[in-house]
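sorry to bug you again but im stuck and you know this stuff better than me. theres a chain ive been looking at and ive put its sequence and its fold in token form underneath. id like you to explain what the token line says about the fold, in plain words if possible. anything you notice is useful, everything is just below.
___
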Amino acid sequence: MPTTPTSRHGDTAQPRDPGQTHNAALLPDAEPAALPYRIVWNDAVDLRQLTLSIALCVAVGLPAFLVSRAVLSRVLAQPALAGGYALLIGLVGCVLGAAVCARLCPPKRALTEDAEIDRAAALAELERLGGTAAEFAALPRDTRDELRALGLAPAPEARS
């Protein structure tokens, strides 16, 4: 189903240029210098929140790794395993830090779906384009299966 990304201000986002350095797509009327957002991995982020998130994950994950490595190297019968277990504990610390960051820094966009409107528009467009059962049969199997699942396939003709 198509989704429409919008900013918190209700503006519909336009497709972004991957090289774009600001979020003019999210707020088309704003000046680039006035926006706190930058494009990272083709998504708009607030650099302050990104910095906070990285710092928090490092602050939780690194001590978890270092402390667990020190403790486990003394406790385990095979000290060589301490590094592997310490990495696992450090990773758990990073995941916990990421969970905290997700609560502290909510997404800047809301995705909405208008399934009924989109489906009705798609059906109207397909009806306008026409098509025959022979053309449907000529489509690749994956496409036919997807159209059937969406309820967009032509009705099967009665066999004589």
User: Anything to note?
Assistant: The CA atoms of residues 38 and 44 lie 5 Å apart. Residues 47-75 form the longest helix (29 residues).
